[in-house]
Amino acid sequence: PPQTEKPPTQTVDLQALATATIRGDYGNGQQRRDALGANYDKVMAIVNQRLAGVATVAPQQTTQANTTRVTVRSGDTMSGIASRTGLWPLSRWSVPSGNINRIWPGQVVTYNGGGSVATGGNAPPATRTVTVRAGDTLSGIAARLGISYTQLTGYRSGNPNVIYPGEVLHY
């Protein structure tokens, strides 16, 4: 008898689902459970690992001359990473998304040399922080501080409409 071909197995990109979950695409609670279905537990394990800042790569690791790799931690911004490492300008950093405003915990960002180490006069001003309280909104925090909400960075969801109590934002 002739052999029948098996239909191709469909694979699910759990990493992409986790990224979308962090962005807020699947809502919260039961809405998220319903949207992710059988993948919920696996996706949430990835999300929790990313948001906890757990990484298998050293936080900073030089792999070749003038190249530095840094693993993004929860609450990081590219300005914060540049300040922490002293590596400027921001334009010399590359990130997986291609947009330095879109980074997530667990990603590895790369500084490709050619800039200068910030010291004294050429270092950017120190950033200030504010901790999100229950019931806060980004615009409410900004109003309380007397700044524009666009000046607040570091929310781990990547979505200004999704912030969490306990998050430390920078301005």
End-to-end distance? 71 Å
Our count of domains comes out at 3
Shape by Cα distribution: flat
Q: Which class best fits the helix and strand makeup?
A: alpha+beta
SSE string: HHHEEHEEEEEHE
Gyration radius (Cα, Å) is 19 Å
Count the E strands: 8
Binned strand content: 15-25%
Characterize the quaternary organization of these chains: single chain
Q: Please state how the strands of the largest beta sheet are arranged side by side.
A: 1-2-5-4
Largest sheet: number of strands, sense, barrel closure: 4 strands, antiparallel
Helix proportion of residues, in percent? 25-40%
Poorly predicted sequence stretches spanning 5 or more consecutive residues? 54-63, 115-123
Q: How many H/I helices?
A: 5
Put the structure in a nutshell.
With 171 residues, this protein is α+β, with helices and mostly antiparallel strands. The chain has helices spanning 14-23, 29-36, 40-51, 78-85, 138-145; strands at 60-64, 67-71, 87-88, 93-94, 108-111, 116-117, 129-131, 168-170.
